[in-house]
């Protein structure tokens, strides 16, 4: 602790003595030192920040068509018009992409197959919230608060992770949601930014923006003894740093092609923040359109179109980050699954357990994790849904502990006996 | 006949959970840097006692939404104590002028049933249109045959309309097609794909032909009413208390029927009881359809409900304050499916958040017992489906009632109090009695009031004094506030300009400080949302936290600065400031004097409470701008230099916002935006923005 404080002080002196304020923002120095001092598992020596990218599929994706249990007879019996044909039973692109002889990816997710083959993609099936609600509202609330069944939790589990590992003066980019509003999962005492577009993170006064910003900088800088002074300083440092990063000119690497959608742009800008080394620890974005009650489609159609965008975004992020994926874990989630049987409108209704993806970092990929409850009629939840065998907190907890180095999961998931014994072993 | 209809619609509406459509996405919130409130104060030397001007500014800030030009002088002359006493009796303050500004907000005058009728959900409307043969024939045929139109599978990556099931999207309260809520029930979903352009067009036509409006307008008008009253009402304390109690008994508008039910909640539940007995407010919220819906009690049913006697009372008329819920027993059809069981949500939040506080001394067993007491407290046709199908009378939709058939009539034990069997609706009322008299409630409510009006971390002494006043007065809110406002802590210099304003307080106080005008067109609320406090859109029942650390952080501070810039350069459609009234004074009798200009604005905005360092920074900034002609317009700053064409364009946009043709208004708004963005920033605007965005103005 003493060492760190000393480092912070001398870091500030070093910048000042260079006489080049803004060359290296002080928050980055602090971020780097905090990282070094906190002993994050793996990579601490290198001083590189571990990053979690959480993606919420809002609206309840149909996990059974996203990661298809094509070895289940009942899958085809229950879904006459929605089932995706077994591998080889139809042309490539019209049939399941085989993963392990039992499960396969929806053909729209074919871009994820090379990541699976490289053992950097793991899947947890039959996972989700133990709460039985079928309300989007409540289920999203629970998945974000991390306290299923308890509505009065004031903060989100990602924020509680940040709270439980306080950094005296963290980078303002430690937690960033690439959304218009800060999502429930990131709300709480620890600072978190919601930025719909990095290009908008600036003082907006038309032609006078630069000089007006200078005025505010000066006012906040001279506000001695005022706690807002520090906030102001961080704000302007962040603005100035982003200007240098120049988000408008970003060029993805390795031929990565992000979907030209809000979701694709969010992932692109997350990649940009990671590469810029701004101290990003937790990033979030969401992608919608999964509530397929009507005309869901099978290998093609409505759900396929959504999965195409979803998979293309993941694949682009993975390609773009290249070797940096060693320090990045991507985690996907959706509030609940959908009914095993198709409904009368060639769609599916609100169900229970679902599938989650984990990509990158120390992921022990190429495997579908979890106990498969089967689709036997008597094994279904309430006679209609995929039963739950993995509590989402055991997945979130494993990522928080093994990737982000959180040793105090009881603070992240209050009221839940989180324990490594319950982890699925998705991360090494 | 009536009984049967109610029964049927009741069971229809209450069957499975629904997918909720949201107009706006997740509650927008800021995280925060840990900022100790004690450190928030400027360290400049403060005298032991506030001056009379400071005391006047203090009560204007803390009891209300800040001073308008001339207010400090007015309050000082009247006497601070007299002003406080006057504010404690809002009914005796003439507020006709402010109320007149609300006359165009139609929703405020409508009952929940009328709102459900006039502002229906598009997809339920579609079903009704089909039933009535009003869908274009080719579309109806398409639906009947359940054909899969090619278009339907290709247009899904278009803008996702439903914020709960779609991604977090920009709030667009006025957007017609993009804002179609896509709520779909679990079972028997309609075979209608609202993404289809033909359906959208048919529905849009139907809305227009029948004088209907989209449900998003309900929340937008309610938000506008809160802004207008905060800006213009002379009953400033009343508006602060509406804000406080609405947040204490928080409800999230995008949750299902709450969008429609919140209008009555504001008008009939909160507003009449801000300064009365706490118990009355508690009972009113407990019986309100909005709360029954938000915390799920409306579907809380005893596992083995009482099959006892059927009692019926008269339904309450709108505006009537029934002490108890009307009782009504919809006869369940023989084929009715069993409903869900007990739901504990309300019971838990009632004790944790509304009364005792989380450490207030209740157990999980108490939660279960309280939940049993409230079984059968429910809502008639909460979403207006029954009314849409013609089976319901509009005036009954969205009203609450007690259904003895769903009530657990056995004996209960709550916090050590025995509640005998057979109590029916009185079980719940007994619980509310027990809770409102509980010492933990006095302490919890006192703490929250002290936090709101005095300091982020109220001292134990202050809390116990205020709690004692609460208890002694049998939970009289007016008496409790008297104790609070007369406390040494409230009047201590240490607490002067020490509390961080919420975004709502900041926006309203900025408009008031500049003597601005607003018609509360949605753009102003969108700024409040961007700064982190969209009204009626905090998702969790806790309500917004009321401490500095929640509101002040990097992202939120940048938005506060940008709000200041947008306001002073009249870039907020529907809201207008005229800076010449301040800058004009500074340039009387010759060339503009920068120092005097700064003093004029600092006087108006901060009552002169500006630090020498800030003033020096402002002067330096003006000099720097003067040497850089491209950065500022220095050529003889006419009183309205900042406004000019941009202001006219913005006003045109604001006018268009009021007009029915919303699309045109949006386009005009965009044009105004472009014009204003390119407008130069005058010295006056620069000074005003820097002061509004300064650390000093973030506090009250």
Structure in a nutshell:
Chain A is built from 13 helices and 12 strands.
In words, what does this structure look like?
By secondary structure, chain A is α/β, with parallel strands linked by helices. Chain A has one domain (about 25-200, about 255-420): Alkaline Phosphatase, subunit A, CATH 3.40.720.10. Chain A has helices at about 1-20, 25-40, 65, 75-80, 115, 135-145, 155-165, 210-220, 225-245, 260-275, 300-320, 390-405, 410; strands at about 50-55, 65-70, 95-100, 105, 120-130, 175, 195, 280-285, 330-335, 355-360, 365-370, 390. In chain A, strands 1, 5, 6, 7, 8, 9, 10, 11 and 12 form a nine-stranded mixed sheet that branches. Chain A is globular, with a radius of gyration of 23 Å. Chain A starts with a helix and ends in a 16-residue tail after the last helix. Chain B is mostly helical. Chain B has a domain at about 505-700. Chain B is built from 32 helices and six strands. Chain B has helices at about 1-15, 50-65, 70-80, 80-85, 95-100, 110-120, 120-130, 135-145, 150-155, 195-210, 215-230, 235-250, 260-270, 280-285, 290-295, 345-355, 365-375, 385-390, 425-435, 440-455, 460-470, 475-485, 505-515, 520-530, 550, 555-570, 580-585, 595-605, 610-625, 645-660, 660-680, 685-690; strands at about 375-380, 400, 410-415, 415-420, 515-520, 575. In chain B, the strands form three sheets. Chain B has a two-stranded antiparallel sheet with strand order 1-2. A two-stranded antiparallel ribbon of chain B has the order 3-4. Chain B has a two-stranded antiparallel ribbon with strand order 5-6. Chain B is globular and about 80 Å long. The model of chain B is unreliable at about 1-45, about 145-165, about 165-190, about 305-320, about 330-340 and about 630-665 (pLDDT under 50).
